[in-house]
Write a structure and sequence with these properties.
Elements lengths: L2 E5 L2 E4 L4 E8 L2 E12 L6 E6 L5 E3 L7 E6 L4 E6 L8 E11 L5 E5 L3 E6 L1
Parallel strand pairs: 2-11
Antiparallel strand pairs: 1-3, 3-8, 4-5, 4-9, 5-6, 7-8, 9-10, 9-11
Length: about 120
Amino acid sequence: QVQLEESGGGLVEAGGSLRLSCVASGGIFGLGNMGWHRQAPGKQREPVAEITWHGVTDYAVPVKGRFTISRDNAKKTVYLQMNSLKPEDAAVYYCNAQIKDTAYNEYDDYWGRGTQVTVSS
């Protein structure tokens, strides 16, 4: 019953900005780290940013200084503010979260379906 749903993807021009959101819903007993990965066609899925419950963040080198990850624990939501977008940022962005399901009472990794980010040049 636990689900992650991304939103906010779309088409932007190089240098533009986009804000992604991901909401966790369902039988959630606990939320751990949340983050974002991305995958471009023909490439491996790669981590983009991660944030702990208390807000400690970590970023992949290619997005450092341009992207900002944040979360609202009350809303069970994680965000990714993407600024100064480059064509190489184009990918499907996936939300990821460590969630303790009330049914299983253990932390598992959950993934959203992904949201497409396209950057034109």
